[in-house]
Amino acid sequence: MKKARYLFPDDYMADPSAHVFEGKIYIYPSHDRESGTPENDNGDHFDMKDYHAFSLEDIDGAVTDHGKILAVEDVPWSGRQLWDSDVAFKDGKYYLYFSLKDKNDIFRLGVAVSDTPYGPFIALENPIKGSYSIDPCVFEENEQYFIYYGGIWGGQLQRYRNNKALESAAFPADDEPALCAKVARLREDMLELAEEPRDVVILDEEGKPLTQGDTNRRFFEASWMHKYKGKYYFSYSTGDTHYLCYAVGDNPYGPFTYKGVILTPVIGWTTHHSIVEYKGKWYLFHHDAVPSGGKTWLRSMKVIELEYDADGTIKTIEGCE
Ligand code: FUB
Fold first, then answer.
1. Cα separation of 183 and 33, whole Å?
2. Would you say residue 299 has pLDDT above 70?
3. Average pLDDT along the chain
4. Suppose 272 and one of 1, 222, 268, 277 were both cysteines; which one would form an S-S bond, judging by CB atoms 3.0 to 4.6 Å apart?
């Protein structure tokens, strides 16, 4: 596959998290909709109310919509805005991790459980203890599960330091180390964090943490983790500069060294992705807002093959081709 393929032209779906379950690719996107909420820097226009699951057996083949797997009203602690999610499998159960504002308009991470990859998922009574911000992604290795999360601006990460809420949001100065995504191991039952979240530190080529002012490279939102040839690839969006970037480390906690751009800016403000290996090839699932005529809040999910150079460098993909 040389050109990106739109996966589901019938509806608007964004933030696709893809995994191989039961021999197929399952995709868990955000379900965009026209809510009429005006666009602002807080992301209020991303006012999503449910999730669907999708699957495909052949990367060029038919995409099955498994229908609604969770809705805002199914979550006992819900306020509004179901943002990015991810799913993990352990011991016969599937765990859906999702971003949702609680009744105080604070983003928390929730968990919902199902016996199948296509749901329905049953949400727990409360959000994950100590969770905050958005965009969970779960990476498994040797039966240990690591959750990565965080997002600045509307994702509220600037309201926290050292996993504690600040009295008011604060960004580091431009020459100070950037705000980091977080990572924590999940408890054996997959329902809570097993440890205090740590910073996902991204270093520059001299071994110094990227600074907040380094907007073309610093973390903004949309964490993803994958392993390639023994190295850990942490990838993310730079948000207001619209790049999907990656950094490479020697273990799931990092630190990670910045390596480059995976995807140049797409049409639409946000960029978001997942990376998965299927039948011996690697794929980048992502989205853009071309089909909606550039409406930031109405995005469409796509897939394209991802390629590496012999030294493990990811070949940059042009977002607007
Ligand atoms: O879809 C809502 C938000 O937009 C996601 O959580 C962010 O990563 C961005 O894609």
1. 30
2. yes
3. 97
4. 222
CA dihedral 242, 303, 254, 128 (to 10 degrees): 90
Which residues surround ligand 1 with Cβ inside 6 Å? 14-15, 30, 46, 83-84, 99, 134-135, 151, 221-222, 270, 272
Residues in the chain: 321
Q: Answer whether residue 1 shows pLDDT above 90.
A: no
Pocket mutation for ligand 1, best pick of 28, 48, 135, 241 (most atoms within 8 Å of C-beta): 135
The ligand 1 atom at the shortest distance from the C-alpha of residue 14 is 1
Q: What percent of the chain has pLDDT over 90?
A: 98
Tens-place pLDDT, residues 88-125 = 999 999 999 999 999 999 999 999 999 999 999 999 99
97, 147 in Cβ contact below 8 A? Answer: yes
Whether the Cβ atoms of residue 225 and residue 234 lie closer than 8 Å to each other: yes
Residue owning the nearest CA to atom 4 of ligand 1: 270
- 8-state DSSP, 174: T
Q: Which pLDDT band, with edges at 50, 70 and 90, does 320 fall under?
A: confident
- Burial-class residue 75 by CB neighbours within 10 Å (0-12, 13-18, 19+): buried
**pLDDT tens column, 14-54:** 999 999 999 999 999 999 999 999 999 999 999 999 999 99
CB neighbour list of residue 217: distance below 8 Å, 6 or more residues apart? 202, 204, 210, 238, 243, 245, 258
What is the pTM (predicted TM-score) of this model?
0.98
pLDDT of residue 2: 73
CATH topology of domain 5-306: Tachylectin-2; Chain A (2.115.10)
Alpha-carbon gap, residue 101 to 81, rounded angstroms: 6
**What residues does each domain of the chain span?**
5-306
Pocket test of ligand 1: the residue of 72, 132, 134 to mutate, having most ligand atoms within 8 Å of its CB, is: 134
